[in-house]
Design brief:
heterotetramer; A: 273 residues; alpha/beta; Glutaconate Coenzyme A-transferase; 2 domains; 7-stranded parallel β-sheet; 3-stranded antiparallel β-sheet; 14 strands; B: 246 residues; 3-stranded mixed β-sheet; 29% helix
Chain lengths: 273, 246, 273, 246
């Protein structure tokens, strides 16, 4: 018996249910774009995106396609190519709920789940309008006599568990361990997610754990529910250390998506051709 | 060597001057000018037999972190980063910054990307340099519409860090923490105090020793163009192509 | 100018001051034994050992040599070779203070310092005698309405900052980055320590950051205050992935250290020959 | 094949029986018998077309973790480990375990290593198997001198995990969570209930279907000796040398 489940991309897409909390990796940690397009094609609804800590074209496409009801993020942007137009418009016309956050808070909420504690403290943030609008956060006076200052207000962030995480990586070994290099935020995401699926460029007929150094580069298969080979699965985003972003394509998207019509045309072309 | 000094080169040079006492400078996303300034300062430190470590998140080569995306914030909270750069859709006279949008939150009129890590970095990095090229009443406002991160905090809040400088295409301000107010320190060439007053949406003091921004000298300019520009092209190719044609 | 400080072992030893909190790595993460012997030879006093999460021969030797006044650990043991005899005797006759803890608490206290927050919550532990005897820990009712259960007691652990950490590793690159493989608890220790020194088997004339996979195996030089080459620097402990423990020697120690006299004879021999 | 079954082989076989429903078994430090049992169960699961993941911390090859020493505890807290093994200098009738020492803490008479990770693992791993070879009134006591981890907790304490079984050289007990009491389930060969009563320092119930520990059948014994023993020798060479002469 194989030591992990090799799935089709369709099977992974079918694991994503309407209304679930979907983990979204940043542009530097392996954006599963091919998966995202299939998800849009399937007509998924009411997704709650949890971005660690931001999203680029992946989030903008999902929002533009009407798949998203809520997004928690520190930023949604096309980077060098400017604002994420479908996101900005959706926020401006109130068609999605944005839970504005800040990078370290998004990390800490998942770390709470990683440790199975109900909350994590964080310094900073207090006095910002981010904090003022987050009713799920709370502030207590530091109860710790042996550390910090007693009358100091401390921000507590709730543990957030993701229903499902999907990301793209360069390769998996024969036991279903995933090479993530130093993109260790993917480990945090996986630890905090009920189910984890990965699309990879290829399988390597090796065992990363046979060598201490290659072991250090991988996310153990024990967190992974299924893997699918998808060549160029991050395109047009970069796969760090493997291929760069296709900036021409992202620029093309950024221009098309400035209008609803341009976005629809772009998506029709990219989903059905 | 082309001696026509570009606006970007002047800003890089001005920023590099602010980094001479640092041991570790970090540069966030989409910041070619601060990135170039940090690498320039590092190169010049070497000549003075000093070490300056530069972490550029957007680069693979100059990204010193191996603990995932949270390490920047943990490292800053530990006090291991001396200078970081932040921008803003709006920056106000009390150094509050807004990266979220204009209008009354949550009813946003024009939505921008979001606050990134500013709400922590602004609290823990000793020298935050606010960097916003556009200097206009639209960007430098009396009061921001949304506080992504406040310029100052109450006494009982843990805050070893905060704003030190604000630099734009037109001027360099220093932030006075006690007065919670900016003070005009340097003017870009061809700018008058009156110009700045008209183009700034908040009230500010005028420093006693106000001066002009000095152009980089020949040595620095040569270092920047010959050594730093190719380094920056690794992670900001579009920028280096536009400025230096490489 | 070199991009890091290459020191002599003596210089590293001189950085350790009487009374400081010294970080102690577990037997699987690179025990700096040669450093430890020099520290004993120097006659260091009143050390407070913080073990992540346990110590073996390193702690036992330091305790037997009268260098330690306090130790915080989840265990002190010679593993297969039984109890740590100098530790056990010192606890039994009250000559050192042991702050009994449990592994995840020792990790969490350093993670609090890593994030610069005054405390970290931890599940479990409540109702144990460990918790009852730790006056520096506290219990609050869960204040988080959006996660966990409201009347649940939650254990809070204070942030602990180490004065100095010394460990042994296989190699450093030309920029002072240290190869730690998957022994990532060394990163936690380093992040939580004011000063960090490392003894290594060798320097490699390479830059770990030139490749995303080798970058994943290293602790960045930015946390390191100095490095010294010490061949076989973990002996008789193992250096994971490089050399195994010298079990014959550890057994010899375990037998000798059963009595104070036997321990003194062993140390005299190993320090001065 | 030598058909004289060793005591250790019987215990390994008994433990393997308790792992048949698991997906992930983790084994801590200095535990050759639980380690061998886990690998045996994994091998047998394969034959039944099932997957059992085994994490043995003392091994490099069977250590599935890459997030440092804390990952065992985080992973367990996340509910991703089904079975873990704990021991004890003393274990009492309410399944409290003591790994610290005898006497009145902090005035210890005989000091042992310490509590390791028991104070968390005991709370979060659904099936904790207590494993202590020595079965005597000295090890199985009415009340432990120090609670490294309690056998039971109040209702408002987060506790998805806890003790399920206690196995010794002489007997296998099941822990009844509601009664907070052990129940004698199996006897090692040549042991009587009366023997066990005399050698156990705490009161326990007798299961209705009490039985003898069965020796491993020929197939299992062959798997253990031919396949598992060499695997275990990678990380417990002294143990495998002593038991199997390899």
């Amino acid at each position: 018996m194989k030591s992990f489940d090799e799935l089709s991309l369709k099977e992974i897409v079918n694991e994503v249910k309407d209304g679930c909390i979907l983990g979204v990796p940043a542009d530097y940690s392996g954006v599963p774009m091919e998966f995202t397009k299939r998800l849009i094609k399937k007509g998924i609804k009411d997704l709650k995106l949890y971005c660690l800590p931001l999203t680029t074209i992946q989030g903008d496409m999902l929002i533009g396609s009407g798949c998203v009801s809520e997004i928690e993020a520190a930023a949604v942007t096309l980077g060098e190519f400017g604002l994420a137009p479908r996101f900005s418009e959706a926020v401006e016309n109130g068609s999605i709920l944005i839970k504005d956050s800040t990078c370290p808070a998004l990390h800490a909420q998942l770390q709470a789940t990683e440790k199975s504690v109900p909350f994590m403290p964080l310094r900073g943030v207090i006095g910002s309008d981010i904090q003022k609008h987050r009713k799920d956060w709370c502030i207590i006076e530091n109860p710790m006599k042996s550390s910090g200052v007693l009358n100091e207000p401390i921000l507590l962030l709730p543990a957030v568990q993701l229903d499902i995480l999907v990301f793209h990586a360069s390769c998996a070994d024969r036991n279903g361990n995933i090479q993530i290099g130093r993109r260790r935020e993917l480990a945090t995401l996986a630890h905090a997610s009920k189910k984890v699926f990965v699309t990879v460029e290829k399988f390597l007929d090796t065992d990363f754990f046979e060598d201490e150094l290659s072991a250090a580069t991988c996310l153990p298969g024990l967190y992974i529910n299924g893997i699918s080979i998808v060549k160029n699965g991050a395109w047009p985003c970069a796969l760090p250390g493997v291929y760069p972003a296709d900036n021409k394509e992202i620029k093309k998207y950024s221009l098309a998506a400035k209008t609803k019509q341009g976005f629809d045309d772009y998506m029709n072309q990219s989903l059905f051709i | 060597m082309n001696s026509d000094i570009k606006r970007e080169e002047l800003l890089i040079s001005q920023l590099a001057d602010l980094l001479v006492n640092d041991k570790h400078v970090a540069v966030g996303a989409a910041s070619p000018i601060p990135g170039a300034a940090a690498l320039l300062a590092k190169e010049e430190a070497k000549l003075n037999n000093k070490r300056l470590r530069v972490t550029i998140l957007h680069s693979n080569k100059y990204n010193n972190f191996t603990d995932g995306a949270r390490e920047l914030f943990d490292c800053a909270a530990q006090g291991r980063i001396d200078t970081f750069f932040l921008g803003g859709v709006q920056i106000d006279g009390q150094a509050n910054i807004n990266l979220v949008g204009t209008g009354t939150y949550p009813k946003i009129e024009k939505r921008f990307p979001g606050s990134f890590g500013s709400a922590l970095m602004y609290f823990v990095v000793p020298q935050i340099i606010l960097f916003r090229e556009e200097h206009s009443p639209r960007t430098l406002v009396d009061q921001v519409d949304f506080i992504s991160a406040p310029g100052a905090s109450d006494e009982n809040i843990y805050r070893p860090g905060g704003p030190k400088y604000l630099i734009t295409n037109r001027a360099l301000f220093k932030f006075n923490k006690n007065l919670k107010k900016f003070s005009l320190l340097k003017l870009n060439q061809n700018q008058t105090i009156q110009d700045i007053k008209e183009l700034t949406g908040f009230k500010f003091d005028i420093s006693e020793n106000i001066s002009d921004m000095l152009n980089p000298d020949t040595t620095r300019l040569k270092t920047l163009r010959d050594k730093i520009a190719p380094m920056v092209s690794e992670f900001y190719p579009e920028f280096t192509n536009r400025i230096w044609g490489i």
